[in-house]
Every structure is written in C-alpha cells, then in structure tokens.
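Narrative of accomplishments. A recurring question from our advisory board has been how the design workflow behaves on a single, concrete structure rather than in aggregate. To address it, we present the structure tokens for one chain from the evaluation set, followed by the sequence designed for it. No filtering or post-editing was applied between the two.
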C-alpha cells in the first residue's frame, strides 16, 4: 500500500512524543481568506496564542506532495504570498498529494489531516456551509459532510454570515453533528456574536466540551463536534449592519460569474473593502479567540485521558 506522505514539523513531532496537547490549524484562511501580510502575521500570532496556553500548534498544508502537519515560518510565508495556490478539500486532497502539488487545506481537508495525525482539536475562523441560494446552485460546503464523519472537535466563530444559517443548521442536524454555542444560547455568526438563531446546544466550559467528545467516542459515533465561539465584543460588527453588504457582495459574485470554490474568497475580499478593513479586523480577533478555546479543550482532553 502507498504510504501517506506525512511530514511533521520538529515541534509537532516532539509534542506527539511527549503526548502533549496539539491544536490543528487550517491554511486556506491564509491563502484565500485574508490578504498579505495580515494573513501571515495572524497565522503566526494564532500559533503563539496556542503555545502560550500550553498546547502546540500544527498548521496543515500540502507542500510539493507532502502533507505537512506543522509549518516552518519560511513555508508559511511562501504560502501567504503565493498566487493561485490550490484550495484543497476532501475531493482533491489525494490528487494533489499524488501529483506532488502544493495547496492549502480547508476545514474538511484539515480535519482529515488532523485525524491521520491523531489530533483531536482544530481551530478555524468560520466553516463552510449551505450558501444562500443553494436551492438553485446546490452549493453546500464539503465541510459539513466532513464534520459528520471525521472525529475532530472544530472550534469556529459560527458559520459565516455569507451563508444561509438556518439551512446550514438544518443540514448539520440531519448529519448528526452537535452544534455547541460556547457560553451563550444564541448561535454566533462569525463577525457578529448574534444571529437571531438559537443554537441547538450550549456549553460553558472547555472541560464539558472535552467530555462530550470522549462520550461520542465511547458511543462509537463517527464524526466531530462543532463549537461556535462568539467573537470578542469589541471586534464584532452588528448582524443588521452586515446583512445588506453581504447581499450586495453575493449579487456581485453571481453577476461576475464567480462560482464554486471562488465564491467564499471573493465575498470575503469584497466585504473587507466595503467595511474598510473592519471585517478583516473582526476575522483576526475571532480566530485568535478560537485558538485560545481550542487549546483549552485540547488540554482538557489530555487530562481526561491520563486520569482514566
Ligand atoms: N474562514 C475564513 N476564511 C476562509 C475560510 C474560512 O475566515 O477562507 C475557508 C475555510 O477553509 C473553509 C472554506 O473550509 O473557506 C470553505 O470553503 P467552501 O465554502 O468553498 O467549502
Ligand atoms: Mn462551495
């Protein structure tokens, strides 16, 4: 059988050897989610936050046919500046590896990589979901299916408000994915802490989230958990203020024939322009906030497994 070309950074190898808590990080947010240099600075800052909490960061990407778990600053910087990097999900991860290609990993592909490396917790900004107008376009992110089948706890700030949130919740329910709002009843919506929607589940501590993850495993259930962590209040943009901008950006995308994988990056860039950088600042604050919570969950999981 072909061996998986996995390549661990020295820091991650050492963490595995010590059985230390590890938090996976995606790289599509770097290549497609933010402009340079904010993408590079944020990726490094997020790694630092995870270290400061007492866990080890493992940023995932495919570089020249190797599935990297943990990236050096040099590789990260290259990715952050590169043009036209492939955005890899479940469908194309193996093809890129087989062809010796380079690409960033989405939530779905990062979950697959984390699972291979036995990393149980992953921090991101927002997951993909059911797009507005999906009844016409059928555009539903592979992230949702991945959450249904791969055993990783994903910490996000809710689904991006560029999606159809009620439909996204419905699909997650159908797939049996627990959607857990952290510390509040309402589902946060990425740039806003509120969405007007009640979250299906609520938890108030990292420890509870870790216990629920262990219990899913004890039940033999495949799939992960989705934790929706509201962003810090000072960085939030009210839902009502964003809605018209998102609608305008979505109309522009379809007018310009943007489809498939290009939709999310296009809308994010448009919003950044329309809000004069405020949406980018919120994006940075929320990913940092998610990294902190993910590290705490990873630490709780290690404590629970060592006390058994
Ligand atoms: N969150 C961000 N920026 C992003 C993404 C999430 O703030 O660029 C990426 C994630 O990698 C997610 C992907 O998995 O967008 C979803 O893309 P799609 O809708 O094409 O599945
Ligand atoms: Mn899509």
């Amino acid at each position: 059988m072909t061996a998986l070309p996995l390549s661990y950074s020295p820091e991650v190898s050492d963490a595995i050897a010590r059985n230390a808590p590890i938090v996976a990080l995606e790289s599509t947010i770097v290549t497609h989610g933010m402009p340079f240099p904010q993408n590079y600075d944020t990726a490094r800052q997020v790694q630092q936050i995870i270290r400061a909490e007492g866990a080890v960061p493992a940023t995932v990407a495919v570089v020249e046919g190797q599935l990297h778990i943990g990236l050096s600053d040099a590789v990260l910087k290259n990715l952050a500046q590169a043009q036209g990097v492939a955005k890899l999900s479940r469908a194309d991860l193996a093809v890129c590896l087989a062809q010796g290609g380079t690409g960033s990993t989405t939530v779905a592909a990062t979950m697959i990589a984390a699972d291979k490396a036995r990393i149980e917790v992953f921090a991101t900004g927002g997951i993909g979901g059911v797009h507005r107008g999906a009844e016409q376009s059928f555009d539903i992110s592979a992230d949702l299916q991945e959450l249904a089948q791969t055993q990783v706890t994903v910490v996000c700030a809710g689904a991006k408000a560029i999606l159809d949130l009620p439909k996204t919740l419905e699909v997650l329910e159908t797939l049996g994915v627990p959607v857990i709002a952290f510390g509040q009843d309402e589902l946060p919506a990425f740039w806003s802490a509120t969405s007007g929607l009640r979250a299906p589940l609520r938890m108030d501590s990292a420890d509870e989230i870790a216990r629920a993850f262990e219990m899913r495993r004890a039940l033999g259930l495949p799939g992960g958990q989705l934790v929706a962590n509201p962003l810090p209040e000072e960085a939030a943009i009210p839902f009502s203020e964003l809605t018209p901008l998102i609608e305008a950006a979505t109309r522009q995308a379809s007018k310009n024939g943007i489809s498939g994988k290009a939709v999310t990056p296009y809308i994010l860039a448009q919003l950044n322009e329309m809000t004069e950088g405020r949406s980018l600042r919120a994006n940075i604050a929320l990913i940092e906030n998610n990294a902190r919570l993910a590290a705490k969950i990873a630490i709780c999981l290690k404590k629970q497994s060592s006390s058994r």
